[in-house]
Design brief:
The chain is α/β, with parallel strands linked by helices and 362 residues long. The chain folds into two domains: 203 residues, FAD/NAD(P)-binding domain; 136 residues, D-Amino Acid Oxidase, subunit A, domain 2 (D-Amino Acid Oxidase, Chain A, domain 2, 2-Layer Sandwich), CATH 3.30.9.10. The strands form two sheets. Strands 1, 2, 6, 7, 8, 9, 15 and 16 form an eight-stranded mixed sheet that branches. β15 and β16 form a beta hairpin. α1 packs parallel to α9, α3 packs across α6 and α3 packs across α9. The radius of gyration is 20 Å and the shape is globular. Bound molecules: flavin-adenine dinucleotide. Flavin-adenine dinucleotide binds next to α1, α2, β10, β14 and α9.
């Protein structure tokens, strides 16, 4: 018997397991596939919501806590796993001035460094490869990125070092509920008992929550392409007209992403390849000549306003939810994990949990 079973070993389940382990709990993560093999692997790893001023305080609170945590988290994970997650402060440039006032107000309120750039020369000094037709934008020099596949690998390595239990390739088939309280979960092979169970199954979470009213977490497919480039050629993350590019340390460049509500289908398409290739070349013309090494898709756990559910289940004792992080699971993950662990261990909570409840207007 474990103190806590977590259903789903994406970044949310794994970060939550690590927090609970550090608080002294005996945790078991049960994952249908390999740990971190779904959305958490597929994402871009930008450690900020895109256009954070469009989001509610509930999202910004989680994001700002996580942003402060990432440098020490990446360091600890490197020590525990020997894997460098490539946390890099490459900054984020938005090539649009339409939302300037809103962005400036937001930056002041949240004490985030943001510069409005109207100087043609300066914006090309920030990113020399930027399309010459782009003449201004909003520049956030402190925004970091992390290489998601390395983050999930490092988390798995930290489980091995810290002795956190996990079971891969083990789908949970059912929750065991008795007298209004959770007793454990069933898999195809066995029944596992625990007094607390957390649903952290990303886009697949709604099925486990089983509420009378509709729980709004649905898969939103995101396709991405990756160019093989030269290290140092492109230096900054750039967001332009809804598309972004993310340069990695080894010269590879990611271009994303699509937003598609097509159920649980993860197929990649030629249309998306073309859309992303054209959008990337419009931002950085040099990308037009670079080879596309790979294309993939992931299923984001979508909610309309992007506010995750981090809460106890209102009807089933001992059942908890940490899901629905939509486009921001990597940036919101550490703070969401901390809040969930605080709720479960009965510690004082760092954030007002009301906005993350199942009953809150998501
Ligand atoms: C293209 C793309 C770009 C993105 N870019 C960013 C970004 O730049 N920054 C950012 O912060 N976020 C980004 N995201 C979003 C981020 O990746 C997600 O919000 C985050 O990964 C969600 O984590 P999760 O652990 O909830 O979900 P997942 O990683 O999907 O994990 C859920 C896990 O639950 C498992 N599971 C499901 N059902 C069962 C079951 N029955 N039994 C056992 N296990 C089960 C699944 O196999 C899966 O591994 C992006 C996403 C995509 C797709």
């Amino acid at each position: 018997m474990s103190d806590v079973i977590i259903i789903g070993g994406g970044v949310i389940g794994m970060l939550t397991a690590r927090e609970l382990h550090q608080a002294g709990a005996d945790v078991l993560v049960i994952e249908r596939g390999p740990l971190g093999g779904e959305s958490s692997w597929a994402g871009g790893g930008i450690i900020s919501p895109l256009q954070p001023w469009r989001y509610s305080d509930a999202v910004n609170h989680l994001a700002e806590i996580s942003k402060a945590v990432y440098p020490s988290l990446a360091q600890q994970l490197q020590e525990e796993s020997n894997i460098d997650c490539e946390l890099t402060t490459s900054g984020l440039l938005f090539t649009d001035l339409d939302e300037r006032m809103q962005a400036e107000d937001w930056a002041q309120e949240w004490a985030v460094e943001l510069h409005t750039i109207k100087d043609d020369k300066l914006i090309h000094e920030i990113e020399p490869q930027l399309n010459r037709a782009i003449r201004g934008g909003l520049w956030m020099p402190k925004i970091m990125q992390i290489r998601n596949p390395k983050l999930v690998k490092a988390l798995k390595g930290s489980f091995d070092t810290l002795g956190i239990s996990y079971s891969e390739h083990t789908p949970v088939t059912e929750l065991i509920i008795d007298g209004g309280a959770i007793k454990g979960v069933s898999t195809a092979r066995e029944t596992l008992t625990a007094e607390r169970v957390i649903i952290a199954s990303g886009a697949w979470s709604a099925g486990f929550i089983r509420q009378e009213r509709n729980v709004e977490i649905e898969p939103v497919k995101g396709q991405m392409i990756m160019f093989s480039g030269e290290p140092g050629l492109i230096r900054r993350m750039v967001l332009s007209s809804g598309h972004y590019i993310i340069p990695r340390r080894d010269g590879r460049v990611l271009a994303g992403s699509t937003l598609e509500r097509t159920g649980f289908d993860k197929a990649v398409t030629a249309d998306a390849n073309r859309e992303l290739r054209l959008a990337a070349a419009a931002i950085i013309p040099a990308l037009a000549n670079m080879e596309i090494e790979r294309q993939w898709a992931g299923l984001r756990p979508g909610t309309e306003r992007g506010i995750p559910y981090i809460c106890p289940h209102p009807e089933i004792d001992g059942l908890f939810i940490n899901a629905g992080h939509y486009r921001n699971g990597v940036v919101l993950g550490p703070a969401s994990a901390r809040l969930m662990a605080e709720m479960i261990t009965g510690q004082a909570v760092t954030l007002d949990p009301a906005s993350y409840a199942l009953e809150a207007a998501h």
